[in-house]
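Forum: Protein Structure Q&A
Topic: Joint prediction for protein chains with partners

I've read a bunch of threads here and the consensus seems to be that you should model interacting components together rather than docking separate models afterwards. I'd like to see that in practice. Below is the full input, 839 residues plus whatever partners are listed. Could one of the regulars post the assembled result?
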Amino acid sequence: MKAPRRIIGLGLALGLASARPAAGGDLKDLFFGEALYHALQGQFFDALQRLDTELAMHRGLDQPELDALHYHVNDAEFSVGDFELNYRMHHRAGRAIKAVLEGAVDEAVRNEAAFRLARIHFQKDQLDDALHALERVRGRVPEAIKDDVEFLRANVYMATGRPGDAVKVLTPLRSDASLAGFTAYNLGIALLQDGHTQEAIEQLDKAGRMPTGDRAGLAIRDKSNLVLGTILFEGGNFDRAKQSLDRVRLEGPFSNQALLRAGWAEASAKQFDRALVPWNILAQREPTDAAVQEAMLAVPHAYADLNLHGRAAITYGKALELFTGQIGKVDASLRSIREGQFLKALIREESRQDADWVITLRSLPDAPETYYLMELMASHDFQTALQNYLDLEDLRSRLVTWKGSLDAFDDMIRLRKDHYDPLLPEVDAQFRDLDARMRLRLEQRKHLADRLQIILTAPRPEFLATADEQIAAERIAFIEKQVGDSDSPESFSLRQRAARLRGALTWRQETEYHERLTTAHVHLKELNTEIEALTQQYESFVRTRQAATHSYVGYDPQIKRLREQVSGALPRVDDLMARQGRLIETVAINQLESRRERLVKQQTEARYGVADSYDRAARLQSSAGEEGR
Amino acid sequence: MARCNRIANTRAITHGGTFTRMVARKCARVRCEPVVSSARACAFALVLCLGSVHALAQQNSRQQMRGLDEQVQEIKSDVLSISAELSQLEEKLLYPSGTQVAIFIALAKGDQMRLDAVRLQVDGQLVAHHIYSFKELEALKKGGVQRIYVGNVATGSHQLEVIVDGKLEGGADFSRTERFTFRKEVKPKLVELTLAGPRSGNTPIALGEF
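Posted by a regular:
Agreed with the consensus. Here's the joint model:
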């Protein structure tokens, strides 16, 4: 039971990204499986709605141990927290996890809950609470989260200004491949923050050489090399800085920064011709990137240092052209955002389908407002704001659909009422008639069964007389009555004949008694089958009749309440969307204005550089001419 | 010319999958912060977060964002409860328990078959035809269970025909058809179909009734 719980819970906690062993065959509760199916596709609203309902039903049962969810109830409780966390409902997630933490669960489960709670607090910047939750991790910790717990602890220490403690936690940590690069890098940073620069350099060097194959590992390795290169560069160790920067992959997310810094490392060593190599590569890249823009100025700067003022003037000219163009682009972006286009671009369908969608936004020709917002859009706060905006849009569209559904339900109920109302009185009347007849027959059957039961203990052959025999017996009795007690020979003879007839009748009933009794039982059994079928049909009718009423009676208050709730929620969602949207736009505009300011400065520098380079080139030319003369 | 030769705003990455904060801490001239590692799938997005974020550094915007975040959480909670009540109402109105039948699809544990489509016929009528997206297939492989059909049938016995199309590991097409009989009683009927590839050694289409 524990292993799948951990797998399901933790798998989901890790953004449902890591591979989770199939649990299809193990799942006993189909509705829990259905919730997982939605969660694993990132549809956390649907997942939560289903699992909440399933858990509520389970808790409401008199004997929950007979319910299929009973086998997974711990998983389900954890999963609710995970789903809520993934749906960015930290408050509820925290409450759900606290409930597990405070419940009667075993040590490993409690520790995992504490870890998750700590992570939520950490993500919400509640560092003291995060530490407090981590302090509750005691005793047996599930193997799968052991490293994660310590890693988180170290991060909390770092965030609370205790790098020394972080070093103590990270140093003995031997993480698996997925965490190793991060651990190594963080240890380097912790050492650096703790004032052990040389040890930090060696640690970052180690982190920058770690073998890895996945994207995250490669990225963190690049980051280690970039940071190390920068530290070495700033310490004046240009050669080693360059070696470290050269290890950053050319196609990675840090390559632009690395190329820029590699150029500066060469330039600082007065190797301007060598600095031009990385800078020229960089200058060919995406012109909206800050590092590329910086390289556009660094290239002519290097040419100038090499006394190639003509080339410098030309490349300054190119930079000037680029900056002017980019300022225009930023202005277009600002206009576009102010016209509301940014929000429209953000809620494109692609954003729901592709996690890396923001990365491709820049390449969309019809989304100029996004060109300069890559970094902003990749930031956590912005992502949260954006995701909230998208969630609100989703909620709004659901509420609008539900409003329509409620109208449809009203229609459906009205049509059912129109259909059933005229029919049901007649059906009920027929049913009452049939019901009375049926009850009579059931009473008769009961009577027969009782008589048979009686004669089992006290034989009564006359009870098994056939109809003819009963008529005959009655006629004999009638004759006997007519003959009376007269002593006449005729009467005597008639009485004797009647007695013989009665005797014959009795003889037959007595001699055939057992056979008749058996037959009667067989018939009663046959009747039972018919009665059973009749009862089933009766019950089926009653159910159908009830269903007919239930299909349209009693919904009005619920629909009315739901309609009020939906109508109340819609303007709230609209209001929140508007506020969230405005905030996103404001942040984006601030970001763009800051980039614009920088571009204007760079444009001025380029403009000055063009003039200066032409002057220098001209002076050089004239002095060369004078020397020639 | 100003040389911007420093790393600015390198930020924390969490193993939980998201960047969490800007920790303003300077070490020499480099702002270096711990990486809080995480899920590989989010890696690229995470890594991008290492860049500079000027505007969000403004405390005001951040506070506003957080304030809004709280309110968004509240409305989510409200809408979830509306959704739960609405789905119960929908179920009562459209699929009353006396006639309700729900059919679920699951994949056998560890099966490597690539499921393309499932068609279902109840009593000779096509009731569901689902073509699987990559995400859906992954969700099934990781243990999710899909409710492929909910409908109404009368109490008694019913014929269920299941047609599964897919691809084997080698890329070869395969198709499998199975017929089952299930009995609908008074309570809601749940039918689980567990699918497996022909090479898995499991029953290709196993029926479970609840």
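Residues 49 and 174 of chain B are 45 Å apart (CA to CA).
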